Amino acid sequence: MKTKKVSRRDFLRMGSFAAVAAALAACQPQVIERTVEVEIEKTVEVPVEVEVEKVVTASPAPLDREPVTLDVWIERGDPQRTVCGTFIDTYNKELDDAGIPVKVEYDFPGEGFDELLAAAAAEGKSAMADALFGSSGEGMYPPYILAGFIPEHNTWMDAVGLDWSDYAPGVRKQIDGKDYWLPWGVAAFIQYINLDHAEEAGLDVSAEPPSDLETMIQWAEAMTKQSTDGRVERSGFLLTGSGGHPSLVWGTVLECLGGQIVGDDGKTPNFNNAVGKEAAQFVLDCFDDYVVSSRDVADRYKDWAVGNSSIFWTGTWVLATSLDAGLNFTTLPLPEIDGVRVSTDAATEAMNMFDTGDADRMMETARLLKWFTERMGEYCTIVGDICPTISGRAMTSYQNRPAAAYEGPALAAYAEGYAKGAIFHPEENLNYYWGDPLVENLDRVWLGDWTVEEGLDRLEAEVTEILNKNPVIDVKLV
Fold this sequence. Notes:
Elements: H1 8-12, H2 17-26, H3 32-45, E1 68-74, H4 80-97, E2 102-107, H5 113-123, E3 131-134, H6 142-146, H7 154-159, E4 173-175, E5 178-179, E6 182-187, E7 189-194, H8 195-200, H9 213-223, E8 225-226, E9 232-237, H10 244-256, H11 274-288, H12 300-305, E10 309-315, H13 319-324, E11 329-332, E12 343-353, H14 359-374, H15 376-383, H16 390-393, H17 396-399, H18 408-415, E13 419-421, H19 436-446, H20 452-469, E14 476-477
Parallel strand pairs: 1-2, 1-3, 9-10, 12-13
Antiparallel strand pairs: 3-12, 4-5, 4-14, 6-12, 7-10, 7-11, 8-9
Helix pairs in contact: 10-11, 19-20
C-alpha cells in the first residue's frame, strides 16, 4: 500500500483535467488496448487458453502458467469488510484446490483512502490495486475513469461470461452505455427509530409515525434527554457537529423544498436562495432551537449503536450493525417536507477493477469479480445489504435474513421514484454526503464561524467555478 500524501484534489490540480489525463496516459506503455483485443479473440473466437463456459468458481488457466498475485482494496466498514475478506479467502482456497497459481491478497485502507488512491495514480497504473470493493464511487472515482485508470468493465466481464441479465433493474449505472463498476449492494438513506426510546416517551410508531418533518421534530423533542444545564445527553435526532452527515441532512431538506446542489442543466447551482437558507436553518435549529442534536457527537454510528440517539437518517448499511448491537428499532421512509419525500445520494456499493497495464492480472481480476457476483445473495444474506442480483434475491436464506424486515423503505425509495442518484463530476465530489466543497463550507456554518448567508455565498462561488470548468456527467440507471 502507498502512504505518500497526495490528495485527489492535489492530483487533479497538477494542471487542467485534460492535461492530467494526457500525462497519465503517457506515463505507461500503451499496451492494454491491444492486449485486450487479442485476449478477446482468444476468449470468444478461439477458446484455447480461456474457456468461458468453464469459468464457474475459479480460473481455468493451465496449471503450468506463471503465478499471478492480485491486490484488492476493501474500502468498507464492518461487517462488510470482514465478510468480504472471508469470501476472498474461500476463493483462494478454490484456486489452490484446483492447482491454479493465482492468489488474491487484500487490505483495508481505512481512513485516508482518497489520498491512497491519488498517490497510487500519481505513480502510474502499475501502482494501482487490481480491484476495489468499496463505495458507490460517484464522488471519488470519476477522474480515475476519465484518466483511464478504471476501464470500462464490459469487455473484461463479457470475456469471462458474466450474466448481465441477472442484475435487478435500476442497479447498474452506465456512462455512454458502458459499465465502469459492478453493483455490490443497493443502498438508500432511510429513517431509523429507536423503539425503546419511543415507548419511554409514550410514542406509538404504528399510530402516528414521524412521516413528516414537523412530526419528526416533535418525536425528537420528546425523546431527547438533557442535562440540568441544558446539554443534550441523548440526541432525539442524531446529527454530528460537522462533516458529511449534517450536509446530507441539509441536502435532503433542500431537495424536498425544490433546491439542488447542481440544477437540472448540470451546469449551474440551485441552492443559494430561500430554500437553501431554510434547509441550513433547519440544521442549526436542531442544535440551537429545538435542542434535539449535539455538536459534540463525532462518531454517529457508535452513538446510534450504543443507544444514545433516537432518530437517525442514514443508509441501509447500518442495518447489520444495528441488529448486531441488539437495538430495538424500526425503519421508516425519510419524512416528507412540504409534501415531498427525497432520498438523496442513493447509490449502489460497487466493485471496480483497475487498468494496471497487465492484461493477465486484469483477466484474473474479472474472474474474481464474476465469482463474487455469482455469490452476491450469500454475501448479502450475511451482511444484511440489499442484493443487486435477481438470483440472489430469490434465495430463501436471503429472503429470511433478519435485515429483510427493515429494508422496505429503501426498496420503496427506488420503486416509488424518490431515490435520487448521487452526482458524478469529473473533478470534484459535489454530493451532499462527504462532498468536499459542501463539507468545507457548510462546516463553518454549523460550527458558528460563518452565517448561513456567508456559507452559501462561498459554497455557490466554489460550485460555480467547478461547474464552469466541467458540467456533471450524465449517468444512466439500467
